[in-house]
Design brief:
The chain is α/β, with parallel strands linked by helices and about 260 residues long. It is about 50% helix and about 15% strand. The chain is globular, with a radius of gyration of 18 Å. The protein binds nicotinamide-adenine-dinucleotide. Nicotinamide-adenine-dinucleotide (NAD) binds next to helix 1, helix 4 and helix 6. InterPro entries: 3-OHbutyrate_DH (IPR011294), NAD(P)-bd_dom_sf (IPR036291), Sc_DH/Rdtase_CS (IPR020904), SDR (IPR050259), SDR_fam (IPR002347).
Length: about 260
């Protein structure tokens, strides 16, 4: 159980982040969620989180491209919950295009959200963890932190970057009861993946069905999508006392993709 701990999960109004928020709430955490979405849906999720945890849950709408908003989010979490014990850097977007047609603003946006936002959240949250000599940072990377796929230049660059950033920060705080790890899922069927199917079909000149079977599941030896609940359970393990010796790691949850 993580009763009494506070957890901040970026990009948690949808998909993997939402699943992680529900899991950490079920273990007793006070949860701050972040991300965009319909206000009614966000209120419904907050209600579910409060019921699951038996304690408070709040939403902060910081845009992960805006450093001042990120720092306000972390400070608000610290003020409202007394600390920031667990930080899950999960917000991320994708864009699929050959590099010579890749929009410059999309490159900048992906690097800002998928990489630089984690620099900002960690530099603001680590002082709280150092004060308590306990903390858990989990950076949601991707199989694309270890291998590449064509037409995903910004995403693959950002995810390789987060793998290096994770190792660096892990070394800096290793003696202060704080672990910093990355997790690297393979394909999980979330809105992020659903949205890239038509673009991948266009970029490769194949059907959407071929994208699912040959490109997405083609990469995963299990021929199954990874499940959100399995990713969330691994995050919960990294937050546990049993995982205090795991730091600077990059845990693949990819159905064997990167074993090939
Ligand atoms: P998703 O699209 O379902 O959710 C993304 C979340 O990020 C949403 O809550 C959205 O509101 C939020 N977000 C987007 N831009 C934001 C911004 N500027 N500021 C704040 N929040 C923002 O995506 P997902 O598939 O659940 O992906 C979550 C993470 O998992 C990403 O980092 C992604 O790269 C990673 N990942 C996903 C897969 C997959 O197959 N789905 C595989 C490996 C890694």
């Amino acid at each position: 159980m993580l009763t009494g701990k506070s957890a901040l999960i970026t990009g948690s109004t949808s998909g993997i982040g939402r699943g992680i928020a529900i899991k950490l709430a079920s273990l007793g955490c006070k949860v701050m969620i972040n991300g965009f979405g319909d206000q009614g849906d966000i209120e419904t999720l907050l209600g579910e989180l409060r019921t699951a945890s038996g304690t408070d849950a709040i939403h902060h709408g910081a845009d992960m491209t805006k450093p001042e908003e990120i720092s306000d989010m972390v400070q608000t979490c610290g003020d409202k919950f007394g600390s920031v014990d667990i930080l899950v850097n999960n917000a991320g977007i994708q864009f699929v295009s050959p590099i010579d047609e890749f929009p410059v603003e999309k490159w900048d946006q992906i690097i800002a959200i998928n990489l630089t936002s984690s620099f900002h959240t960690m530099r603001s949250a680590l002082p709280y963890m150092k004060r308590n000599q306990w903390g858990r940072v989990i950076n949601v990377a991707s199989a694309h932190s270890l291998v590449a796929s064509p037409y995903k230049s910004a995403y693959v660059a950002a995810k390789h970057g987060i793998a290096g950033l994770t190792k660096t920060v892990a070394l800096e705080v290793a003696q202060q009861g704080i672990t910093v790890n990355a997790i690297s899922p393979g394909y999980v069927l979330t809105p992020l993946v659903q949205a890239q199917i038509p673009d991948t079909a266009a970029a490769r000149g194949i059907s959407e069905e071929q994208v699912v079977n040959d490109v997405l599941l083609g990469a995963q030896p299990t021929k199954q999508f990874v499940e959100i609940d399995d990713v969330a359970a691994n995050v919960a393990h990294l937050c546990s006392d049993a995982a205090k010796g795991i730091t600077g790691a990059n845990l693949s949850i990819d159905g064997g993709w990167t074993a090939q």
